[in-house]
Design brief:
- The structure holds two protein chains of two kinds.
- Chain A is an all-alpha fold.
- Chain A has a domain of about 170 residues: Orthogonal Bundle (MetI-like fold).
- Chain A is built from twelve helices and two strands.
- In chain A, strands 1-2 form a two-stranded antiparallel sheet.
- In chain A, helix 3 packs across helix 7, helix 3 packs across helix 11 and helix 4 crosses helix 7.
- Chain A is globular, with a radius of gyration of 24 Å.
- Chain A starts with 8 loop residues before the first helix and ends with a helix.
- Chain B has two domains: about 180 residues, Periplasmic binding protein-like II (D-Maltodextrin-Binding Protein, domain 2); about 210 residues, Periplasmic binding protein-like II (D-Maltodextrin-Binding Protein, domain 2, 3-Layer(aba) Sandwich), CATH 3.40.190.10.
- In chain B, strands 1, 2, 3, 4, 7, 10, 11 and 12 form an eight-stranded mixed sheet that branches.
- Classes of the chains: A mainly alpha, B alpha+beta.
- The interface between A and B is medium-sized, with 30 and 38 residues.
Amino acid sequence: MSQVMGVQPVLQRSYRMMLMPAVLAVLIFAVLPLLGMFVLAFTSFDLVKGWDTGFTLKNFVKLTDDKRFIASIWVMLSLSVFGVIAQVAAGTAIAVGLEKIIPRWRFLRGIFVVPFVVPHVAVALVWLSLFTPTLSPINAFFDLFGITVPALLTTRWGAISAIVIADTWASFPFVMLLILAALQGISSDLDEAASIDGASKIQVFWRITLPLLKPALLMVALFRFIETIKHFPLIYVMTNGGPGRATQATNYYAFIQTFQNSKVSYGASIAVFLFIFAAAISFWVARMNARISDA
Amino acid sequence: MKTQYARRLATAAMVSVTTLVPAYAADVDVLLFGMPYTKGLAALEADFEAETGLTANIEVVGQNVFENRITLSFTGKTGDIDVVHTPVIQVQRWVEAGWLQPVTDGVAGMNDKDDILAGPLDAYLVNGDYWALPFFAETGMMSYRKDVLEAAGFDAPPATWEEVLAFAKAAKSDDMAGFAMRAAPGQGFNMFVFPMIMRGYGGKFFADYPTDLTPAINSPETLEALNLYIELINEYGPAGGGNFNFSEIAAASQAGHLAMFVDGTSIVAQSLDPAKSQVLEHMAIAPVPAGPAGRSPTIAVHGLGVPADAPNPEASFKFIEWATSPETLTKIAIANAYPDFTRASVAADAEVLAKYEAINPDFLDLRVQMLNDAIGHYRPLLPQWPEIGASVGEHINAALNGLETPEEALEAAEAEMIEIMAE
């Protein structure tokens, strides 16, 4: 560890000691399991057949030829791309609305945060009943006017939309909070100058606020993208991967292989793929972000 | 200085370990997952001690926690579980993995062995040994609305799947679904019920189980059954029926929006629950419908087994014998919603009879009749079943919801079965 500049050597040691718990926690709870995952992915561990600890690449070879795995990537990308677009759009719209357009309604911020603190399993149960026509108040309401709302969860794109909707409801507050923070960092002088020059509120938003929010939007989209890759409770509770396999995202498929089919090493190789995929996306976004900041 | 730190750390660690981890002083540590029986059993811990002088620690956890706990315990060979909840659907896999020890000698030594229902007990006979004693046997039944049946002009509940179709057609209206059955994919969901139709039409999973394990699900018989299942749910089922599981079915029936459904006895019992059903006076039950090849009610059996590394198998078996004894089962049947007992003599108990006859006079008799008609390998008893069941269930669900044609679904299901069996 390098010396902290301008701090007395005696303090240096105690600073390091104070850092130890955090370092240990990261080592034990993040680095070790990650190493374990790699070890599993390059060996053959099947709960029923036992553990063959010899090095092998067969899990990864099998991945390239596994139709269910490849289909699961498309499911994951659909859920992530549509989910991130919906959440970022909704979160930004509400944040800008509350901060710039109708500041009187700022007190609503507290209410909008509520969905964010609800555990995902509870979110899933609520939306499952909303999307089950026989239980749903939405269907009951439209039935009054003789309109039949179709059952979302029994079609491929319906089920994907249902998960995206539930996830958007639960996660837009996260986007909203981060964008609100970013908005507070933008000087109001710019808005004022623009409006004095005759720009409308909408022009101010498109020409001034949005460009300045770009780095924050990229960061928040990245956070949400990585979170949506980890989709599990919504799928498990709302669709169980169905109809057919239409909502078996890659993460869910890793769960099936590991815990349902007992193929721990194969499941770990899928997890390694997800890890590398998420890392690559993060790296790419970080580079893009740096380019935007430099410009 | 450093050694002092280390010593302090070690002391702190030891103190926290000894205070946080409760001392398991019990002679028999039992791990179960939540069902009416297991909850009832946990309340009787003291009875076991009074009767045998041994102490028991009965832990009832959620099913997913259970899976994690036993996987750790079995693969780590920790020997910390003396008696384990053993679903029959898992027993082949556990036996192949060497996770259980046989209880054959204990069973041979029981003098009231004949009182145990033969079907559920034989489900635990693998490679010539018994691996658990059953405490729960659920089978299939039909629940239907008498008033809707009469209004539709029928004088008896449908006895065949063809008649189910006719009744569903006649019963269907804007606020009444004609028929419902589990549709959500899963070996314990749609694959718990679909084989009732499949086997009724002569369809089967394998060419000749257990001697010839060539996958044979892609047959004209299964296709006919699948088409009927799809027509029943999509044409006459509730809106969104293609994603229904047992809880949605029970809720629709209790709310009075469902003319008829076929499911396990525990779900049928929920449709007869006075506290929940809004149409209780109209509810009636009937046998599982038959097809051209006969009747094949679903069956699910749970039991108690002994892990391979349990240190004291005699004590373990003593617990199992007590927990599945007529006295214990009777107590639980009276105190809990537990009509799924596995001893014939429990059904003869006056208090048990009175309790379940009050719900429905035919319930217990019909249950025994269905259990007698059920085949033990309704879902094939193979270590690969959990994977096969999941895979086939996904294709059945895909066909139901139009993602695949029925022909494609069966072809793909058979191809995947071949792959899984070859591994």
